């Protein structure tokens, strides 16, 4: 499969773990929340394995993994996390190697680009601006843009509509089973980076169309327009 090139007029990117290494800020926000609530703090590795299905899932796992919390406690913790994460969002985040060059090359080739993330819009848009990459994207679909998130393919179809490109002429690039399942449901190829989060699951065990050790390798997987 490594030699297959896809006729992609558009490329959809996951955000956390694919374009940006956000784990330090997520862990800081989570531990500030836990400290305020008097709960045990989490290690970076633990938070790393909790990321992928959006903030509510992250908060739930921080409060319930190997411990207990009521639904009322989880609901009350959400605004606490959001308040703390808003303060640190982007502070320690880094752009992964190869990402800037890849985005610039794809745009130069005339491809349409979008971010499709499970992160809420209130954090996604400021983060893209803060990291200086917002201008590369023609559309952004966040975790609360629609009533559903990845792995529901509806978010990928929505991104394609915003870009004006058929799903069959689009490639998804992500780091987890959420991205792979959404792409499979949308009928588009999916490439996964090996350096991301993947919710603690070995990325090479996820059904996809190829693995990327650096974002630049995506350029070799696309047909010329």
UniProtKB/TrEMBL annotation:
Pfam families for this protein: HAD_2 (PF13419)
Keyword terms, alphabetized: Carbohydrate metabolism, Hydrolase, Magnesium, Metal-binding
Single GO MF annotation: phosphoglycolate phosphatase activity
Pathway: Organic acid metabolism; glycolate biosynthesis; glycolate from 2-phosphoglycolate: step 1/1
EC number: 3.1.3.18
Active-site residue numbers: 14 (nucleophile)
Name of protein: Phosphoglycolate phosphatase
Native source species: Thauera sedimentorum
Species classification: Bacteria, Pseudomonadati, Pseudomonadota, Betaproteobacteria, Rhodocyclales
């Amino acid at each position: 499969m490594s030699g297959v090139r896809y006729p992609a007029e558009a490329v959809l990117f996951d955000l956390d773990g694919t374009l940006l290494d956000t784990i330090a800020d997520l862990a800081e926000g989570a531990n500030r929340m836990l400290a305020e609530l008097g709960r045990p703090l989490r290690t970076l590795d633990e938070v790393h394995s909790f990321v992928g299905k959006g903030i509510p899932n992250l908060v739930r796992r921080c409060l319930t993994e190997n411990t207990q919390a009521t639904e009322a406690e989880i609901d009350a913790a959400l605004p606490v996390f959001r308040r703390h994460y808003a303060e640190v969002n982007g502070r320690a985040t880094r752009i992964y190697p190869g990402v800037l060059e890849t985005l610039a090359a794809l745009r130069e080739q005339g491809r349409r680009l979008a971010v499709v993330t499970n992160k809420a819009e209130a954090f996604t848009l400021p983060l893209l601006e803060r990291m200086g990459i917002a201008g590369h994207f023609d559309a952004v679909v966040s975790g609360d843009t629609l009533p559903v998130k990845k792995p529901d393919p509806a978010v990928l179809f929505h991104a394609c509509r915003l870009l004006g490109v058929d799903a069959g002429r689009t490639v998804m690039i992500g780091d987890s089973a959420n991205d792979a399942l959404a792409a499979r449901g949308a009928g588009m190829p999916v490439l996964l980076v090996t350096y991301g989060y993947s919710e603690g699951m070995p990325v090479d065990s996820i059904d996809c169309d190829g693995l990327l050790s650096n974002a630049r390798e995506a350029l070799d997987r696309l047909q010329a327009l």
